[in-house]
Amino acid sequence: MDGSERIDIGGVSVPCGHLIGGRRVGSPDGYEVITPIDGSPLGHIPAGGPAEAAAAVAAATATFPAWAALGPDGRGEILDRFADAIGERMADFQRVDTHDHGALAAGRPHHGMPRTAWNVKFFSDRARGLHHDTIDGDVVDNSVRYDPSGVSALIVPWNAPLMLGTWKIGPALAAGNTVVVKPPEFAPFSLSLLGEVAQEAGLPDGVLNVLHGTGASAGDALVRDPRVSRISFTGSPATARVIGAAAAANLTPVSFELGGKSPFVICADADLASAARTVAVQFMNAGQVCLAGTRLLVEESIVDELLPLVLAAVDELVVGDPRRPETRVGPLIHPSHFAKVQGLVERAVADGARVLCGGGPHPDGGLYFQPTILADVDQRSEIVQTEVFGPVLTLQTWRTEDELISLANDTIYGLAATLFSGDADRAERISSQLVAGTVWVNCFYVRDLAAPFGGSRASGIGREGGTWSFDFFCDVKNIATRRGTFAS
Length: 488
What we know:
Layout: E1 6-9, E2 12-15, E3 18-20, E4 23-25, E5 30-34, E6 41-46, H1 50-69, H2 71-88, H3 90-101, H4 112-128, E7 134-136, E8 140-148, E9 151-155, H5 161-174, E10 178-182, H6 189-200, E11 208-210, H7 215-224, E12 228-234, H8 237-250, E13 254-257, E14 263-266, H9 272-281, E15 295-299, H10 303-315, H11 335-350, E16 354-357, E17 372-375, H12 382-385, E18 392-398, H13 401-408, E19 416-420, H14 424-433, E20 438-441, E21 460-461, H15 466-473, E22 474-482
Helix pairs in contact: 1-7, 2-4, 3-6, 4-5, 9-10
């Protein structure tokens, strides 16, 4: 592949090559990407390796001084145009996203797509208003600055590549860094198109580079490059350990947002109808959401009242082609991932789990899996301890808050938690004891970009969002000036 190839995805022309230093570049090898809608070929993408990774980092390194020198206001003008351009191409991105990784067409114009543009606009504005704190000491005045750090390597997962990609790209560019983003190998095309939109919006060549390929080749070479100053990765703990070891050799700071096995706690004093509807929401994106509350922990006294409400809400979910407006549960990303999800469920059932709904592939076939809830599961079982990353929930009950906290915190993860309760004191008491980076109380998936986001334990390292993003992507500098040494 020479890098000039384009393919048609849902009527949208999408570039296939790497974007390095403002030019589309190919690789000697490539691979075929399928659409999860029906498993058919979507297009070929070049398989980058060490040479392409080195070239992308070199382009970002060369452009960094000029981009950093623009300052927050100069960069902000360009990033605002970039955000506007994303908004103008919203329909195109929606179509590509749906074919690329199975995102639902319904709701995207109101949720995922606006968030993609807002990820850029928010951090552009935030960088302009990032004040330089002054800390008055006994002898000196301390002035805190947020300086650009250099080249950021951003590695994006396949479950929401465009939204999660801009979640990283926005603050990195606003901080004054230049970027090499590696799209997911299963779903590379929406970020490939984003690179073209960035060029059209006037981002200087080399500020945003797109490196295609597998994690084992392109990704590995990228994170090992000593010229990279920051690494932000979203994905599995296993891959994060490999990246962390590579980053350690260069003492490169990392920010990891990893997996989850989040508890969804429902207390007897909760609004059960609202809780049941929110349980059904956990099947969004076919359960391929790290934040999903996949472990239902229900107070024992209300399980018989709650369960019919939950099953009724889940029964209303339409599984099928994500292009159809009525669809609420689309396909899993790839046959290999489908096999993983199916295997976890089959082993759980063989071990004694009781199927409350679903339990296997959808009758229509393809990469579609039925929304599934399993009861009678042991706390130490694979299905309770392992992130399924599919439309599969487990149900357990508890009697005392001590028992609840023990169950909720008894995994290696600590990404998120959801809690439904009608008692403010009880909600605060339980929330304060849950090991999680985010706890939603009587709501779910409400993300304020000004708030910190990240995970504990095996769910991640660090926090991003608001000023926390700049704490990571910037070199935070303190200037301590002795009082009285300058004429007033």
